[in-house]
Protein 1
Amino acid sequence: MLGKLDWSAIPFDQPIPLVAGAIVLVGILAVLIWVVAKGHLPYLWHEWITSVDHKRIGVMYILLASVMLLRGGSDAIMMRIQQAVAYQSQGFLPPEHYNQIFSAHGTIMIFFVAMPFVIGLMNLIVPLQLGVRDVAFPTLNSVGFWLTATGALLVNLSLVVGEFARTGWLAFPPLSELSYSPGVGVDYYAWSLQISGVGTLVAGINLVTTVLKLRTKGMNYLRMPMFCWTTLASNLLIVAAFPILTATLAMLLLDRYLGFHFFTNEAGGNIMMFMNLIWAWGHPEVYILVLPAFGIFSEVVSTFSGKALFGYRSMVLATMAICVISFMVWLHHFFTMGAGPDVNAIFGIASMIIAVPTGVKIYNWLFTMYGGRIRFATPMLWAIGFMVTFIVGGLTGVLLAVPPADFMLHNSMFLVAHFHNVIIGGVLFGAFAGFEYWFPKAFGFRLDERWGKLAFWFTFLGFYVTFVPLYVAGMLGMTRRMQHYDVAEWRPWMFVAAAGMAVLSIGVICQIVQIVVSIRNREALRDRTGDPWDGRSLEWATSSPPPVFNFAFHPDVRGEDAYWDMKTRAQQQSLEHEAPEYHDIEMPRNSPTGFICAFFATIMGFALIWHIWWMVILGGIGAFATFVVFAWRDHDEYVIPAEEVAAIDRINLEERRSLVSMAGAV
Amino acid sequence: MAMTATVGHAHADPHHIGVVIEHPGPASKRIVTAYGFWVFLLSDIVMFSCFFAAYAVLVSQTAGGPRGSEIFEQRNVAIETVCLLLSSFTCGMASIAADVRNRFWFYLGMTVTCVLGLIFLVIEFREFADLVARGYGPSRSAFLTSFFSLVGCHGLHVSAGILWLLTMMAQVFGKGFRADVLRRMMCFALFWHALDIVWVGVFSVVYLLGSGV
Amino acid sequence: MSDQAHTRTEHDIAPGDEEQHSVGERVIGYVVGLGLALLLTATSFFIAGTDLVWQPSIPVALIVLAIAQMGVHLVFFLHITTGPDNTNNVLALAFGAMVVFLVVGGTVWIMGHLNQNMPPMDQIMQMHR
C-alpha cells in the first residue's frame, strides 16, 4: 500500500536531522498559524500564490532562494566545523551523515539557491527593462515557480522522511546505482531535480520568448540593456542544456527502477557516459548562473559610474560567444578520466579560450568606471568586490584548464576553492548586488546602506578567510569530501577556514538585520519617484513598486539607455507634457494552475521515491486534469479601465516631474 | 540627483549603419505562443539527442545478447514509418481545416491522424512485447537498454501526442475555433511534425544503421 | 500584454505558419512534402538492404538521406523558410542543431577515445582471461 515507506524511514536515532527537521516544521507551522490567525490567507492566496504577475513571481523565487540559502549555509557550517575537528578522530558527524550533508549542500546551493535567485531577478526585471507588461507566458511562469518549489520541498523532506543521496551533488554512478545506494537518497535527489528541472525549462522558454518577441516600440536588439542580453544568453543555455540533465537523470532512474544498463558495471553499461552527459549539462550550467550576474554588474557599474556601459557591442559579442563556447568545454571536468592527450588538449584549449570573452567583460567594466563619477553604494561595492574575487577565481580556473596541472589538482580542495571562488564571487555577489539594486523597485523603499555595507565587508572578508586556506590545503594534497583525516599540516588551514565561515555567517546575519531595519524604517527610505539610483534603463521609468500593468503606455525607445535618454530630453524640453490619453489595459487573470500542478507534482514525486504506484497514477491524472481545466476556461484576461490607469499613472507622473524640475533648477 | 552629470548623450546609438529598422513593438499572441513552443521543441530534440548519443555509445555493447541485425524487422519499421508520414500529412490537412474553420475536415483529419498514430503504437508495442518475451528485454544488455529507451521515448511522445490530439478535438467540439484553441492547434501540429523528424532519425540510425553494426 | 497587438506579419511570422496562400496551394505543399518524404524513406530502406552499392558508403548515404528528409519535413510540414520573416525561427533552429551536433558528436568522439585508451569493463575481463 505504501511502497517502501514505513516507520523506519524516520531517523529517530539521529538527533541532528530530527531536531533540525522539528525546528523547520515548528517554524512553518508558526508562520501558517500566524497567517491564518491574522486573516492574511485570502491576501496570500489572491495576491501571491495564484498570482501570474512576473514581479510577484520573481519575488517569490528570490524568497525561496533566500530560505534555501540558509539551509545550504547551515550544511556548509557543519562541514567546516567537522573538518576543523575531525583530525585523527571521527568529529561530530558520522560518515553517512557527512556524505548526505555535502551532497545536499551542493544540490541545494546550485539548484535551489543560485538558480531561483537569478531566475527570480530576471523575472522581476527583464519585462520592465523591455518596457512590456508581463512575460510571454504568465501562467506557465507561475507553474515553473511552483515546480521549483516542489523540488525544494522534496529535498527538505528527505531530512526527516528517509535520507538524502550520499553520492555528491552529481550522483556519479556506479555509487548512485541501486547495488551501491539501495536507499531512497538518490531517488530523492533525482526526482526533485527532475521536477524542478521542468520548472527551470519552463522559465527558460518563457524568458527566451519574452526577450525575442516582447519588446516595446523601438527596442531593437542593440538597444536592449545588457541584463536583457545576458538573460537571453543564459536562458538559451537553459533551454539547450537542461534537457541533457533531464535525459541523463532519466537514464539513471531507468537503471535504478527498471534494471536498465546505462551506467552499470555489468552487461556493457558505461559509467563514463554519465560523466560525459552530466557535464555536457554541467558546464553550460555554470554559465547559466554567471551570465545573469554579469548582466547585473553591467547595469550596476554603469549606473553608479554615471556613464553608459563601455564597449556595449563588444559586451554583447562576448556574451553570445560565451553562450556558444560554453557548450564546447565540458570535458575539462573529467580530464583524468582517460580520454587521451588529443581530446584533453582540445578541450583544454577551448576552456582557456572561454576566459577571453570574460576578460573582455572585466575590461569593459573597468573602462566604464574610468572617468566616471563613481558612487560607492552597496550594489557598487558588491560589483567591485566581484571583479577582484572573480579574477582570482578565473585565473585558478585557467590553471585547472591545463590538463597536466589538472591531473595534480583534480578533486582536491584546490578545486573546491576554485569553484566556490567563481560561484560565490560571481553568482552570489551578483545576486546580492541585484538584490540591493532592485529591492527599491520591487518594494518601494531602499535598503539600509549602513547594514548593507557591513554585510558586504563581512561577506567579502569572510569569503577570503574561508577559501584561501582551502587553496593551500589543496596544494598540500588534501582531497575533497573528507569526513576525517590524519595529516597534521592540513589542520591549521581547516581552523582558519572554519573561522572564515564564522565571519561569512556574520555577513549573512547583517543581511538579515539589514532587511529587518529597512522594513522598520521604510517610511524614511521610501522611493517616491521610482528612480532611486538615477538609473538608465526602463525599469526606473515606472513607479516603485510598479503598477500591475508596469507601464501605462509602451514606452517609445530611441537609443541605448532608454530612460537616461528620456530624462535628458525631458530636461531639455523643459517639461511641456500634454495630458496623455489613457486606454483600457488587458492583463492576464490570476490562476491557481501553478499551485495545484505543483501539489500533484509533489504527490507524484513523493510516491515515485517510495514506489507507491497508485499514488503516482493519481498524481499524474491530477496534473493532466489541471491543465485541461485551465485550457477550458473562457476568460483569461481582465480589463483595467482607462480611468484607473490614469489615476495610478498621474500620481507617479507628478512625483517624477517635480524631480526633473528640481534637477533642472540645479 | 546627479542628472546633470552627463548631458550630451543624445546620440545614444552612435553607429547608425545605414537605416535602423525600428522595432515595431511586442509581437502578436499567435507568434509569441508558437515561438515559445518552437523553443520547447528544440529543447525536446536536444533531449532526444542524448538518447541518440547513448545509443551510439552503447550499440556495440551487446554483452552476449542479440545484435541489432538479429532482432530488427525491416518490414515492421517500414509500415511504422509510412503510418507516421501519412499521419503528418493528415495532421497538416487538419490544421488547414482549422484555419478555414471547417469542422468536418478538421475532425476527419484529426481522426485519421489519431488512428495512424495508434497503429504505429500498436506495432511498436508488439515489437517490444515480442522482444521481452524472447528474453531480450532492456535489462539484457546495454545495447538493448539504449534501444528500448530511445525508441520508447519516441513512443511515449507519440502517446502524449495522441492524448493531446484527443484533447484538441474535445476543445474544438466544446469551444469551437476560438483564437486560443487555434493557437494550441498550431502548437500541436508543430509537435506532431517534429515527432516525425525525430522518427526519421530513429529509423535511420537505430534500425537501418544499427542493423549494419 | 496583448493590448492593440501589433500584428506585423510582414516582419515576423509564427513557426509553422505560412505566408498567405489559398487552401489549394497549401494542400499541394503537403502533398509534395509527403511525396518527397516517402521517396527518401524508400531510398533509405532500399540502400540499407542492397548490395548494389559500395558497402562502406551505406552509412554515409543513410545519414545524408536522413538529413535530407529532415530538411523536407522542415520546409514542407513545418514551413521553415529562408524568408526574412522567418529569421528568428531559423536562428533558434540553428542553435538547437548546433547543440545537438555538439552533444552527439562530442559524446561519440570522447567515448570513442575513452574506449580506445581504457577499454570497457567486459573487454578488460576478457583480456584477463
Protein 2
Amino acid sequence: MIASVPHLSSRPQSLWQRIHLDPVLLSGLVILAGIGLLVLYSAADGNMVMVYKQGIRLGIAFGIMGLIAQIHPRTFYRWAPYFYAGGIILLIAVLVLGDIGKGAQRWLDLGIIRFQPSEFVKIFTPMLVARFLSQNPLPPQMKTIALAGGWILLPTLLIAKQPDLGTALLVASAGFAVLFFAGIPWRLLGILAAAGLAAMPALWFLLHDYQRDRLLMFLNPEQDPLGRGYHTIQAKIAIGSGGLWGKGWLEGTQSHLAFLPEPHTDFIFAVWAEEFGLLGCIAMLILYLAIIARGFFMALQAQDSFSRLFGAGLSLTFFVYVFVNIGMVIGILPVVGVPLPLVSYGGTSMVTVMAGFGIMMSLYTHRRLVPS
Amino acid sequence: MPPFRLKDAVHENRLIVNRITAASAFVILLTAGLIARLVFLQVFGHEYYTMLAHDNRVKISPLPPTRGLIYDRNGLLVAENVSVYTLEIVPEQVEDLEDTLQRLQAFLTIDEDEISRFNKLMKRNKRFESIPLKLRLTDGEVARFAVKRPFFHGVDIHARLVRHYPYGALVSHVVGYVGSINERELKRLNVAEYRGTTHVGKVGVEHSYEAILHGHTGYAEIETNARGRELRVLKETPPQPGADLHLTLDIELQKIAYQGLGEHNGAVVAIEPSSGDVLVLASKPGFDPNDFVYGISGKEYRALQTSPDRPLFDRTLRGRYPPGSTIKPFIGLAGLEYGVRDSHTETYCPGFYQLPGVSHRYRDWKRWGHGHVDLAMAIVQSCDVYFYDLAHDLGIDRIHDFLHQFGFGQRTGIDISGEKSGLLPSRAWKRRARKQPWYPGETLITGIGQGFLQVTPLQLARSVAILANRGTLISPHVAAYTVSGGKSVPWGKAETQEKIKLSPRNLQTIIDAMIAVVHSPRGTARRIGQGIEFKIAGKTGTAQVFTVKQEEEYRAEKLAKKLHDHALFIAFAPADDPKIAVAVIAEHAGHGGSVAAPIARRIIEKYLEQP
C-alpha cells in the first residue's frame, strides 16, 4: 500500500505543502489569468481601467483561494450542513426581497456588499452531497441517491426560479458530479438521461419567454439575425473569420467594432478565437484540460472519500463551466449566462471558481503523513 | 442483500479511480467536440465568415458632389453655392426633444413648417445623424445660440452648401432653381448617382443641364460598428464636382429688358443671329428662386400660383401671344416670294376692308385709312388693309407654309424644357382641331397677326433672327460652354446652316421697309431712331386681347387694363450686318412703338457698344 503511493512517505513536507498550495495547479491558473487579462485588454478596446479592475479582482480571488486552502478539510466536512442551510435561506431571501437586475432577481443587497447567494451554493451543494454520500459506503444505495438528488434539486429549483438558468445548471451539475464519482449505477444514469429527454417538452412550458427565445435562437439563429439570433451569429462570424492562425492580438475587427455584443464578458472566447485562431483555441482548451486533469489527480491523492468526491466534483464542475461557455459562444449550446472561468470580465463567479480551487488545494495538501 | 455494509477503502478507491477515468474520457470527448466545431468554423467556414465579417464592418457611404456653378456670358455668377448656417439636432444625444425645442423657441423663431419638416427627416434618418431644424440662420441667431450652446447637448450649428441665386427674380425662369428631390424624381433619377444628393434642378437651366451640373457621386468605404456609427474611412473615391456652365445670357442686357418693362408684365428675348446665342430671356414678373431651394411654404407657394400676374409662368417659352403687326414683314415677304405682289404694287386703304359680297368691315387701326400704299409703306405705317388684301390673295395655306419655314407653330428646340409650340393655323389644323371649315375672314386677320395665330416670344425672336440672317436657320440656346477640371468644352448642337430659299432682292425690300419703320419720319417706331449711328430694322405690333364690336371704337381709357392691347416690337441691328435680334412683348401696354420699342433700342445700343 505504501509502496503503491510512494510520495506519502515520511519525508519532510515541502514548502508548498506547508503553505497548502499546489504549484502545478497554481501555475496553470496564473497562466490562464494572464491570458484572460491579455484578451480583456483587446476586448475592452484598450480600456486599461477595465484591465486594472480585473487585475485587482484576480488578486483578491487568488488571495481568497490561498486563504481557503489553509482551511482543513475537516472543517468543510463539519460545516457542510450549516453552509448548505445558510445558502438555501439566502436563496429564499433573494426570491423574497432581492434586487431586480436584468429582469431576474439574483442579487442580495446588504448595504455594503451586493452579492449573489447562488454563487456560494455552487460550492455548498457539492460539499453537502459529498459529505452525505461519504457517510455511507460507496457506491450509494438507491435511497441515498434519491436523498442526495433532493439536496441537489432544492437549490437548483430555487435558483432556476430567480430565474438564472445558467447558475442552476452549474449547481445541479456540481451536485450531480459528486453523485457520479460516488458511483451511481450506469444503468441509473441511462434511465435519468432518457427521462430528462422525455421531460423536455414539459420543461418547455416552465420556461420564461426569454429562455424559450434563447432556445429557439439556438436552434435557428438565422431566423432573426438582427434581433434575438444576433449574438450567436456575430460570435460565429468573429470566430470563423479568425481562421487557423487568427488575426493577431488587438487585430480582431468584429469585437472592436462592437458587432460582438459584450465581448469582454460571456463572449470573450470569441475575441480570443478571432485574434488567435484555431491554434489559440486549442491551446486554451489544452490549458483548461491540464487544470482539470491536475484537479482530478489531486482529488485522487486525497485521503478520504469526502475529499475525493468533493475535489473531483469541483474539477468536473469547472469543466462544465468551460464547456457550457465555449459551447454557447461557438453555437452548439443555447445562450445561457455562464462566464468563461478566469477569463471573462466580472468578479462574482471568479471568486467562486477560485474558492473552489482553494478547496481543492486544501483537500490535496492537508494529508496525514501516514495513511490511515 | 446485506442490511449493513462496511466501508471498504480499497473498493471505494478503485471505484473513484474508475469514475475519474470515465469522467476524463467524457471531458476529452466533449473537448474534442468543441475542437471539431471550431475546426468547422475556423477552417472550413473561414472564407465564408471572413466575407461576412467584411460586410459587417464596411459601409459604403456616398459623397455628394458639389454642384457646378452657372455664369452669364461675361462671367457673372448667376447660380452659386454658398455656405449657410443651419441649426441641427442629433436626436440620439438629446434627452428630451420636446423640452429642447421649447427652450430653443424661447430665443429663436421656429415655425410649424420647420418642426414638421424636422419630424419628417427624423423618421427617415438614423438617430445619430445630424438633422437640420432651422435653415439659414442670421448672424444674430447664430450669436444668440452660441451663447446658450452649453445648455443644448446634441444641438449645434453647421455650415452647409446651399444653392443661391444672386440675381433672384431677374433670371428666375431661365436659370430656374433646385429643390428637394421628390418621390416622382426619385423614380426617374439614377439612384446610385443621387445617393447623398438632396437637391435636383427643377426648372430652367438647372433642370435641363442637371446631368452636367450635378457631377458624379463619390463613395467612401467607412468602417462602422454594428450600430452603424462611423469609425474610420478605409477607402475613398472622391466625388467629381459638377461642371460649371457658362450661359450665352448677358445679365446686363437682361437687366435692361427687365427694368425696361417697368410696371408692365411681359417678355423680352434677344438672340445673336449668327450663333443662335440667346442673350436675353426675360419674363416679367419673376419670383425669387432662393425661396424654393429649401422648400417654400404652402402659403407662399399658393400666393405665387394664384397671383393674376402669374410670376411662375415663363412667358418667353410658354407665353402665347398674337404677334399682331409684327407678322407683317413675314406676310409681305410671302407675298413677294409667291409673286402675289411686287414691291411697287399699291393697294388703296380707305380705313377698312370688305370681302366681296360680305358686308362685314375689317377695320384698319387708322380710321380714315392710309390711302394708296405699296408694300414698304404698308410696313412702315403698318397698314392693315394692305395685309388683309394680301392675305386674302395668298390664302391661308400659303401663309401657313411660308411662316412654317420661319419656325412659327413649332418649338425652337431651345435647351430649356417646357417650351410651347404656339399656333400656326391652317385649313387642315382647323378641320382636325376645331372640326370646322376655314372661313375666308380668318385668313384676313391672320394677315395682321390676329385670330388663331399665336407665337411665343422666343419663336418671334428666332424668326426675326432668321430674317436678319437672310434666311439662315438657327437653333437658339442658352448654354455656351462648360468648364470641368479647368477644361472648357463648347456646348450646344452643331449648327446645321440650313437656309430658307429666299430672293435677296425680296429680302432687302422687306428689310429696307423695316429700317424705315425706325428711321423714316412716318415710321411707327420713329421715336427710337433718333440719335443712333447704326440702322435698326424693326416692326411694331399691337395685339388685340379684346375684340371691339363692329360699331364701337377701341378706347384704352374705357377698358380695364387686362383688356388693353399688348405692345410688341421686333428688331435687329445693325440692319446690314445684324449682331442682335430682339422681340419685346409688353402686356396690356398699348402701342408697340411707345413701350416695347424703347426697350429693344436700349438693349441693342448696350449690346453694340460692347467691344
